Amino acid sequence: ILGILTTEDAQAVFIDTPGIHKPRHKLGAYMTRLAQKTLEEVDLVLYVVDASVPPAGGEEYILDQLQDIKTPVLLVLNKIDLVKKPELLPIIDWFQKRYSFREVVPVSALNGENLDQLKMLITENLAEGPFFYPAEMVTDQPEVFVAGEIIREKVLQLTREEIPHAVAVVIEQMQQRSNGVLYIAGVIYVERDSQKGIIIGKKGGMLKEIGKLARQELEAIFGTRVYLELWVKVKKDWRNDEKILRSLGYQ
Question: Domains in the chain and their CATH numbers?
């Protein structure tokens, strides 16, 4: 996912890598390879951590992987609005004992605390060069991709811990109709019948809520009325099926 931040004297291009973890299936292995390759190719790595969750084995694994790269790393501790300041210091100490970060920046994306400092540090660590994108451009991703990610985000937000990240969204149709309405048809793929039932919900209530929230955000982004149709389908163990992974855009 590519995001672009342009100021008067700098342009930062953000690549959101897949999460780094011990792979348990072919999709996980692909994602891990992609993340590690990306870390070697950028000017700066932002390691974003949820400060409200105690660090554990997953962080140990990521820090081990970071030892192998030469790219400078900023530790960004997000959600500090949920943590009392005395509780934050041991978390910072835990990470600093395990890795030599360029800087540690506690932030709150919710209320904006320390985001200006983070932007300044990012700018200071960028290599000199031309602006590659127009100042008004905020992403290079196609609209179909953006639509799929928004729908997937709503699925994960509303189902919380009930649905693992074994969810894929494929946009099968996206078309501006003669009446000005943007028609979007998407399929939500899961791995098990039980997951399908959770996403659909009682009398279709969960799927309706997912669709409503996704439609509202899509209308705000695209600046037009959106008619959104969603279906939920089961593709058993799709994360280990190479044919299915290719159809979803994974190589």
Answer: 2-124 (3.40.50.300), 143-248 (3.30.300.20)
